[in-house]
Design brief:
The structure holds three protein chains of three kinds. By secondary structure, chain A is an all-alpha fold. Chain C has one domain: Helix Hairpins (Orthogonal Bundle), CATH 1.10.287. Classes of the chains: A mainly alpha, B mainly alpha, C mainly alpha.
């Protein structure tokens, strides 16, 4: 082995893995009544992991195992983001799990493992590692989706998810093997070197890359690989749906961003049209089909498909060809993607948390059952409205700033038409978000509904959810009004992507 | 001299009022909701005081006080600036907005009395005032856009204020979505401007770039047209005009403030704010002029036959905004803003009088009014003053501003000038006619029963009586003093605002052309004296035009008198003779139908959706905005493949992968 | 035996798996078809590993380092990973199929259409 195997570098990951095991095994030991403590142990572990990572890796740029694992600002940004996101989902699911899920230990333990998968996806510097990390995430998600074992929707969606997931993995793996066969390497920088040396793409490479795009497209639910998403989102337990829509998507974009900017950038002229096409199809279809949804989880599923379209617009704009014909990495696009991911995560989590709370009270996810929500719980409807406005991209909320930034990056890379399309899509999205808000505020609670009176008195929001919603609410406004710090963090992460690491172990790529 | 912090306070006071009412009074002290009204009035009054101070400061400073451009957010390669823009255009708008708002708030004290949402009403009004003031004070383009949207949002909340009425909820949504259609183009234009240069998001930089010729004519055309599209949506110009009449579902003070004097005029302000950019492109200027001129006539013609008094005024507003646009389009910058300023006062007056009339008769339908002159003399007198001003009769305010526009149009040396002049005179005739039709139908003749009679007729016709009608009462008396006092103040403004602000000859108190010179002092916008003169800094009084326009207006009034007062011509006969024309007008040129039935139902539904008959169409909400519902149907087609079958999903994904390979191969 | 021949076998196998995954309605059959697809990947990966020389070993003068040798073995590593991942995938998949069977008494995926649209 080479000299540089500083295993200590992996401490935060080890903490995550250890916490997962700890939570799983504590579940066996603890008496049933005391299992409420599990999520908090998990959260403590996540905090420890983030703290360790921030302290230990703040100024480090290192590679492990010859570039398999990369620790730099970019990985650190996503480590912090994804672990905090996972922690937020964990806290957000406390009330839901108490009521609807029989296996809290499994739920939290596997959640932590999936977080580990996510952070590894962001730091993988090589296709195989990325694939394995992605499978760690996916397998965890398969189980989490199926965790409401006796709910037929839950296990139907899990069956669809795993069958299609495995199917897409096979497609992606075939692509990886072809890319490896042609370029002789699975390392991102090696692929980049190959693409620079051979500007004319080999047909095998084209097929391989297309298949990888298809596989990743499946993970992020890009059209036309999106079709599993609405069904799975609808059937999964709501916090898991939130996690699927936010976490797995953010992690997949962490992987995509590194792969496309460090590995495939030299050939951007070749693939940008493909990605732009996918982006256009995704944002149009996701937002259009969302209109006719009557189930709010499905609606949010389609709307999050639409959001993927915007993010893909950023991916297509990752490089700008300068006057001399050389490809220049566009930090603006990558920063835009990261910032938008954060803004989207906060708003979407808030929306899903409201959905989860409402489900716990009314037992329904139908949009029509949101009628009169403002009367029953002004707080929930306020947070929901702000979340939806933020997703639609209205000014002063997170979504506007992040979208604007992303779209300017697109416009600058020559995708003004796509940015325009994205804005039309946002306009459409406002329409269906307004339907929900209208239900909540304008429509009266249905008359003759005898439960209504009861509901009104018992429609309380559990403390954990209440606090979490408050934090998210503040987050949405804060990002909307003062995103500078966030942008600076994302920018330093982009810097890491833009620079070639000077690492002694990079022998042969 | 006002400083930057003071400028922020102009926004700050109404905003604080909004926060206090929303966060403290409404949740905890709703019993003392009246405090909310006083608080709002106080806050707006302070803003008005500061605005006047700002006006004096700007006048002293020569039309522009340069404040710092601050960084709102800085991304790598993208700094979004914000700050205070304090120039003549800003202070003009500040005084208009804060002044009208103050009067409307006082009026609202009486008008909204007893409404359940009293505190909420004032909270929204404060929010609206704050965001409107923020809009005119914006220095950064993005900041401007943000306030622009906030204004739209508060307009949405205010139109839908009585949200339990389906018509109000539908109107609110329609307004929000239709204006956003224009906003989309505006945002696209912002993106485009940004691609022209990183620092152009700061408006003074944009002015500079326009002056030194850093922006090409084609680029300017596209950017200006996008901005203009935003203005068209907000100002309800053709073809996005259909939302404004519906917006009258909101409370009348809201119509007076938001939908006549301030928010809808924001479109004109927007074009004025980007005037140096528009001036670079003849195409853009001509588009603005022609759209404005056409809308002036188009909207006025619909006002000829409407029976709802507020809707007549809504059409009138669209038409008057059309005047402002065509004025600015032919380069008559000063005249356009002069008209905006004057129009704000007398149109607010007219809306308030409509509210006052409603207070007495319980209805807005003029067919059930009449004879109110005797019971409400103050309202009557002020309405006549407002009406004469709107019709453009010497020496009322509207005469001066309208005349300046016409005089400028007559001087323009191109076919566009003549076209808009003819359109403008046509619209002036219609304006005088519908205005006096309103006065004769409402105040003269015999009282025709008010809301009681209307409800009777509705019942007889077997129609449902909505909440608004059911709760209304006939109450024949003059309105309370909180409502009458603003009317009187506005009446004074409607008389004096014309020649006192922009006299064509010096009168001692105010210098000759004081308004024109004040508006064109800012050298960032008007680099040279010639440019200022070209924009109408020193308007000449054109006797020929003045005579012509007065003649046109008088003949309009005479026709209205002959039809509705002297009964020389029977409106019923006229209607019968011009039945097709009347039907088109009363149906608002079938634009709602065009948008809803033809575009939505026939083209999208019948052509696309029916071919894929095997899916069931989701039942549409009764209150949906139909324009948007085509997308709903289209989305149904797309949802059709989402059949729940695993294999379909896999097959589509595989086909997608193949297509991906093909696209990739094709481009590589 | 040449690289092309083996790759041909691999792609035929992949196509068979693909067909099975899309055409079969029995969930277990679908899982098995996907397994065939994974195996096609393995064959391709090993074939590349056997027949191509990794970039690192074509430099002149050839510097055979440990790392370069590792790179040469990427294909084998890939297939080992894939075998493991596929096994886990199938284990999870079968467990889920059993849950579905208990609930509905069928493993026919065409019946899994409670959610659509």
């Amino acid at each position: 082995m080479s000299a540089n195997v500083n295993v200590n570098l992996l401490t935060p990951e080890f903490i995550l893995a250890g916490m997962g095991l700890l939570v799983l095994s504590l579940d066996l030991v603890l008496p049933k009544a005391r299992r409420g403590i599990l999520p908090w142990i998990g959260v403590a572990g996540l905090i420890a992991a983030v703290a360790t990572a921030l302290i230990y890796r703040w100024d480090r740029v290192e590679e492990l195992y010859g570039g398999v694992f990369i620790a730099d600002r970019y990985s650190l940004f996503f480590f912090a983001f994804l672990v905090i996101l996972g922690g937020a989902v964990m806290i957000a699911s406390v009330d839901y799990v108490k009521q609807h899920i029989k296996f809290p230990g499994e739920y939290y333990g596997i959640l932590i493992f999936s977080i580990l998968g996510m952070v590894l996806m962001a730091s993988a510097g090589e296709l195989l590692t990325a694939y394995i990390a992605m499978e760690l995430l996916s397998f965890s998600l398969y189980v989490l989706v199926a965790l409401r074992k006796y709910d037929s929707k839950s296990n139907e969606s899990a069956a669809k998810y795993i069958l299609l997931g495995a199917f897409s993995s096979a497609i992606m793996l075939y692509g990886i093997s072809m890319v490896w066969g042609v370029t002789g390497t699975t390392f991102y920088d090696g692929i980049a070197a190959h693409l620079t040396a051979n500007p004319d793409l080999d047909i095998g490479l084209i097929v391989g890359l297309s298949l990888i795009v298809a596989g990743l497209g499946f993970k992020v639910a890009a059209v036309p690989f999106h079709m599993w998403a609405p069904d799975v989102y609808e059937g999964a337990p709501t916090p898991v749906t939130a996690y699927l829509a936010i976490g797995s998507k953010a992690a997949a974009f962490a992987l995509i961003l590194r792969l496309f900017s460090e590995g495939l950038l030299p050939a951007i002229e070749d693939w940008r049209v493909l990605i732009a096409t996918l982006a256009a199809a995704t944002m149009v279809l996701g937002n259009l089909v969302a209109i006719r949804q009557e189930n709010i989880k499905r609606m949010l599923a389609y709307s999050s498909i639409g959001q993927v379209g915007y993010l893909l617009l950023g991916v297509a704009s990752l490089g700008v060809v300068d006057a001399g014909g050389a490809v220049v990495f566009s930090e603006r696009a990558s920063t835009g993607i990261m910032v938008h991911l954060v803004g989207y995560a906060v708003a979407n989590l808030a929306a899903f948390l409201v959905v989860a709370v409402v489900y716990s009270r009314t037992g329904s996810d139908q949009i029509s059952d949101y009628r009169g929500l403002a009367k029953k719980s002004p707080y929930l409807s306020l947070v929901l409205s702000v979340a939806l406005f933020s997703l639609a991209g209205l000014p002063f909320f997170a979504g506007f700033v992040t979208k604007f930034y992303l779209f300017t990056a697109g416009a600058e890379a020559g995708f003004l038409w796509l940015s325009g399309l994205a804005m039309v899509a946002s306009l459409v999205s406002l329409y269906y978000y307004l339907r929900v808000i209208q239900r909540a505020y304008v429509d009266q609670p249905s008359e003759g509904d005898e439960e209504t009176a009861v509901e009104r008195s018992t429609f309380f929001v559990p403390l954990t959810s209440w606090l979490m919603l408050g934090v998210l609410f503040v987050g949405m406004i804060l990002i909307g009004v003062w995103p500078t710090e966030l942008a600076a963090a994302a920018d330093s992460a982009s810097d890491a992507l833009g620079t070639v690491r000077d690492v002694s172990t990079a022998l042969v790529r | 001299m006002i400083n930057e912090a003071g400028s922020w306070l102009i926004i700050g006071f109404p905003l604080a009022s909004f926060v206090i009412i929303g966060a403290v009074i409404r949740p905890f002290f709703n019993r003392y909701a009246i405090v909310a009204g006083y608080l709002t009035i106080l806050a707006v009054a302070i803003s008005l005081g500061l605005s006047i101070f700002a006006f004096i400061s700007v006048a002293d400073a020569g039309g522009n006080i340069p404040f710092e451009s601050r960084e709102w957010l800085s991304f790598p390669g993208l700094v979004i600036p914000f700050g205070i823009m304090m120039d003549s255009l800003t202070v003009l708008m500040l005084i208009t907005v804060a002044g009208v708002s103050l009067l409307v708030q006082v009026y609202g004290l009486g008008y909204m009395k007893g409404d359940k949402g009293y505190a909420k009403y004032f909270a929204f009004m404060s929010l609206f005032t704050a965001s409107m003031l923020g809009l005119v004070l914006s220095r950064g383009v993005i900041q401007l856009y943000a306030f622009w949207e906030l204004v739209g949002l508060s307009s949405y909340l205010l139109i839908g204020f009585w949200y339990t009425r389906p018509a109000a909820a539908a109107a609110a949504k329609k307004a929000f979505l239709m204006t956003r259609l224009g906003d989309f183009a505006f945002l696209l234009a912002i993106l485009y401007i940004f691609t022209l240069g990183d620092d152009l998001l700061d408006i003074p930089h944009l002015y500079e770039a326009a002056q030194i010729g850093a922006i090409g004519a084609t680029a300017a055309t596209w950017a200006a047209l996008g901005i203009f599209a935003g203005a068209v949506g907000k100002s309800a110009q053709f073809p996005l005009n259909t939302w404004l009449p519906d917006a009258m579902e909101g409370p009348t003070p809201v119509s007076a403030l938001v939908h006549s004097a301030t928010m809808v005029a924001a479109g004109v302000f927007l074009v004025g704010r980007f005037f140096p950019l528009f001036e670079l492109s003849n195409e853009a200027m001509n588009t603005v002029a022609l759209v404005g001129g056409f809308t002036a006539v188009f909207a006025a013609s619909m006002g000829l036959v409407a029976n709802d008094i507020k809707r007549v005024f809504a059409f009138s507003t669209i038409s008057q905004l059309g005047y402002m646009f065509f004025a600015i389009g032919i380069g008559a910058y000063v005249a356009a803003f002069f008209h905006l300023f004057v129009h704000a006062w007398f149109k607010t007056l007219l809306f308030m009088s409509a509210g006052s009339v409603n207070h007495a008769s319980g209805t807005f339908d003029m067919r059930y009014m009449g004879g109110l002159r005797k019971v409400m003399p103050f309202t009557y007198a002020t309405t006549v003053i407002g009406g004469l001003s709107l019709a453009g009769i010497f020496p009322f305010a509207g005469f001066w501003s309208k005349d300046e526009i016409f005089a400028h149009a007559a001087e323009v040396d191109s076919p566009v000038g003549w076209i808009v002049l003819i359109l403008g005179l046509t619209a002036a005739f219609m304006t005088a006619f519908y205005m006096f039709r309103v006065i004769f139908m409402t105040y003269h003749g015999k009282f025709r029963g008010g809301v009681d009679k209307e409800n009777e007729d509705l019942r007889a016709a077997g129609e449902e009586i909505d909440e608004a009608h059911a709760t209304a009462r006939v109450h024949l008396a003059e309105s309370p003093w909180t409502m009458v006092m603003p009317l009187l103040i506005l009446a004074v403004a409607a008389v004096l605002a014309g020649y006192l602000t922009n006299p064509t000859a010096g009168y001692g108190i105010v210098d000759q052309h004081s308004f024109g010179e004040f508006m064109t002092e800012n050298h960032q916008v008007f680099e040279t004296h010639e440019a200022a003169v070209h924009a109408g800094a020193e308007p000449k009084f054109n006797y020929g035009i003045a005579f012509l326009s007065t003649l046109v207006a008088l003949s309009g009034i005479a026709l209205a008198y002959a039809m509705y007062q002297a009964k020389l011509i029977s409106p019923a006969n006229l209607t019968a003779r011009f039945k097709p024309v009347h039907r088109i007008l009363i149906n608002k040129y079938y634009m709602d139908e065009l948008y809803e039935d033809i575009i939505v139902r026939n083209i999208f539904y019948n052509r696309f959706a029916k071919r894929l008959a095997s899916f069931d169409i989701t039942i549409l909400d009764g209150v949906n905005v139909q324009l948007a519902s085509w997308t709903r149907r289209f989305s149904g087609v797309l949802g059709f493949i989402q059949d729940g079958q695993l294999q379909t999903y896999g097959a589509v994904a595989s086909a997608g992968a193949v297509v991906a390979i093909v696209i990739f191969l094709f481009w590589a | 035996m040449t690289l092309e021949n083996v790759l041909l076998v691999s792609s035929v196998l992949f196509a068979i798996g693909l067909y099975g995954a899309l055409a079969k309605s029995n969930a277990i059959m679908i899982l098995m078809s996907i397994e065939i697809m994974f195996n096609a990947v393995n064959i391709a990966a090993i074939a590349f590993s056997r027949f191509t020389v990794p970039a690192g070993l074509t430099d002149t003068p050839i510097t055979v380092t440990q790392q370069a040798v590792q790179r040469a073995l990427t294909g084998q590593m890939l297939s080992v990973f894939v075998i493991t991942a596929a096994a886990a995938e199938v284990a999870l998949g079968l467990a889920l199929v059993i849950v579905v069977y208990r609930q509905r008494g069928t493993v026919d995926v065409t019946d899994l259409t409670e959610m659509s649209g």
